[in-house]
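How it folds
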Amino acid sequence: MTSSEVARPAGGAARAVTRTLSDDPLGGTVRRTVLPSGLRVLTEAIPAMRSVSFGIWVAVGSRDETGPQAGAAHFLEHLLFKGTNKRGALEISSEIEAVGGETNAFTTKEYTCYYARVLDEDLPLAIDVMCDLVADSVLAAPDVETERGVILEEIAMHDDEPGDEVHDLFARAVYGDHPLGRLISGTEETVTPMTRRQIQSFYRRRYTAPQIVIAAAGNLDHAAVVKLVRQALRGTPLDTDPAAPAPHRSATPAVRTRPAATVVEPKETEQAHVILGCPGIDRLDERRFALGVLNNVLGGGMSSRLFQEIREQRGLAYSVYSYASQYADSGLFAVYAGCAPGKVDEVLDLTRAELARVAATGITEAELARGKGMSKGSFVLGLEDTGSRMSRLAKGELLYGNLMPVDELLARVDAVTLDDVNALAADLLGRPMSLAVVGPFDESAFAAR
């Protein structure tokens, strides 16, 4: 049965559908249930653990906002912890903390996650609290005003962190006014006038059962988790008529990016922060495994080319690395460096030269082996806790439409060839590069570049 099907017995009423996705030798048994409402529940049973991570993932992020709504998804993330029809804000936090658990949430450009980590015996409590706050928040008017102030302070704090700000500046340089180029938090100009009614409308239109994936990993029983979730959601706005799960976000049409540009945010900082990069590939591109290897070789660790050249051999920067961001229909590839303002030109020259060299001549067999080893090792070591395993379940379902077994993923990395990486390097690194800079400069300082 595919993820878009809703099973119906002879009488015509919808029922939940459960199947085993994998019994992974490197993990536990993964099971998936689609509730009649279209909400999906995935679990990974790991009996050796004494904890459970439980997350509610919503396929809604900042890119789903219109211009005037910019920041609504993040605003809502804050507000859902402020109280429901059953609990106040203090009760939400104190009930979980009383058993030594922890709760938190985060908003990205394509999804929002609310999660808790507790002892296995306290999982029923975590399910009840987290389902309550996601499904039945009241969004009281006084809480909207309180959190507006908190978010405006968060935006101001972000503006005081140039090492973070430069990444947003780079996204804007590539995507312009497209939602992928906007701040996840919104801006003071969009958050200040946002009304409770606007947030409430966003909440009820976007937080629907087909858009939600619940994932849990640790010492648990799948059937018990499904039963507890259904009990917690009964009678809430997520207890709805039968529907099919929403498909994962489409990769077409691809996002149109801006021509290569230079964007400078003048600030009197002790260190200049620079990002040089270009549009990359989307998350379902078959070249993503080769990209992981290429990224490791260029700037993915202390043995990488850029780290060795810029920091180890020349001492020009404390932090220098490359990274790739991938979305449903687009992506970014970039190099970041933080250095003294007087060293920016040299750092950029070295970075451009290294990217051009790899684009022209590729990487070596030894670098290929090291890059593949880094990809495999970081992935497997990242599965050493219940939180990362819970995230893997949800992202597989929400972003990719399937959960790739660990052995298969490792095999896909092993299958990457030198030709694969070098062909990608010639394509990707030969693209026109955008530059984002935060530091004591104006744009005229980079006009010739």
